[in-house]
């Protein structure tokens, strides 16, 4: 299981959010070498992203996440007068570079297409409001276990082991029921709005540590859900390129740096600890974003590590 946890750049005493479980200490993103390919399978084929909502989410909140998933393959109609770039789909295309490198290494041609799958509601919190990693896997198993990624999303009043203390979410894999149960990938992300927004919803909330610059306005006017989008985006990139622990990563297998977590706190050009980078701003709402999505959405997405240039690739 591979978590989004907190890292310290000790010389600046700044908590870096949404990164993998490895102390970066004095390293900066542009110093990373190419993430090593460990010859394992990447997530490939036509994959459904199933959303498992645990706890109370408003329909408008569920729409933010589902629109983000739809945006991964959404493009503006050819007749559109407005070219909505940069787009979520363009951001996601950076992951294709990992597939091309894997293809040359294995003489194969893996590819990935993600679509929005089923949405499962567990508003009564069938496993209680204090969850362990085992509980997350049980919830993830409610989704399809073939050709799918099952995403467990916990509401603001649900506590999860390590949430806000060491991680904002995680991704992993499990085996389905039965002796011949298939291996499937899953993701968990929590709503940090009331529990740990300074850790898991920056830059839409003041950080717990480091420079206290004013928080940015969330593009969908929901600090908790816009923070979830950031963490889900990071974990989805990690799931695609390292679904079973033997794909692309750097460092120990149980605490790897991956496609997004190799670029902590970077959202736009000119980013530095405490500053997310030069972003786009919605002139109506004041919301900060770096990617357009489906249904008129705007999102803030993390930089992805570009394996061909060994740099953190930003949208703006």
UniProtKB/TrEMBL annotation:
Keyword Secreted applies: yes
Entry keywords, A to Z: Apoplast, Secreted, Signal
InterPro entries attached to this UniProt entry: EXORDIUM-like
Segment forming the signal sequence: 1-20
Pfam families: Phi_1
Compartments where located: Secreted, Extracellular space, Apoplast
Main location: secreted
Origin: domain of life: Eukaryota
PANTHER family linked: PROTEIN EXORDIUM-LIKE 5, PROTEIN EXORDIUM-RELATED
Family per similarity comment: Belongs to the EXORDIUM family.
Listed name of the protein: Protein EXORDIUM-like
Species this protein is from: Camelina sativa
């Amino acid at each position: 299981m591979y978590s989004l946890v907190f890292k310290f750049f000790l010389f600046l005493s700044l908590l870096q959010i949404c990164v993998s479980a490895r102390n970066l200490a004095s390293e900066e993103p542009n110093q990373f070498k190419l993430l090593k390919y460990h010859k394992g399978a990447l997530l490939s084929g036509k994959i459904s992203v199933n959303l498992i909502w645990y706890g109370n989410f408003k329909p408008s909140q569920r729409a933010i996440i589902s629109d983000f998933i739809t945006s991964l393959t959404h493009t503006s109609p050819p007749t559109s007068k407005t070219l909505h770039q940069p787009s979520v789909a363009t951001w996601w295309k950076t992951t294709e570079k990992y597939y091309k490198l894997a293809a040359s290494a294995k003489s194969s041609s893996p590819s990935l297409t993600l679509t929005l799958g089923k949405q499962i509601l567990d508003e009564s919190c069938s496993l209680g409001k204090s969850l362990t990693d085992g509980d997350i896997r049980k919830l993830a198993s409610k989704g399809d276990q073939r050709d799918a990624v099952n995403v467990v999303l916990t509401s603001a009043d649900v506590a999860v082991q390590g949430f806000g203390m060491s991680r904002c979410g995680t991704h992993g894999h499990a085996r389905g029921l039965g002796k011949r149960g298939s291996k499937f990938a899953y993701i968990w992300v929590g709503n940090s709005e009331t529990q740990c927004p300074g850790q898991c919803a920056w830059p839409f909330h003041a950080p717990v540590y480091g420079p206290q610059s004013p928080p940015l306005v969330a593009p969908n006017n929901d600090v908790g859900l816009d923070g979830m989008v950031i963490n889900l985006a990071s974990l989805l990139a990690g799931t695609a390129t390292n679904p079973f622990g033997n794909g692309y990563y750097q460092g120990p297998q149980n605490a790897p740096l991956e496609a997004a977590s190799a670029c902590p706190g970077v959202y736009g050009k000119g980013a530095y600890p405490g500053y997310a980078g030069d972003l786009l701003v919605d002139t109506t709402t004041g919301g900060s974003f770096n990617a357009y999505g489906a249904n008129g959405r705007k999102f803030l997405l993390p930089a992805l590590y570009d394996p061909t240039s060994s740099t953190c690739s930003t949208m703006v």
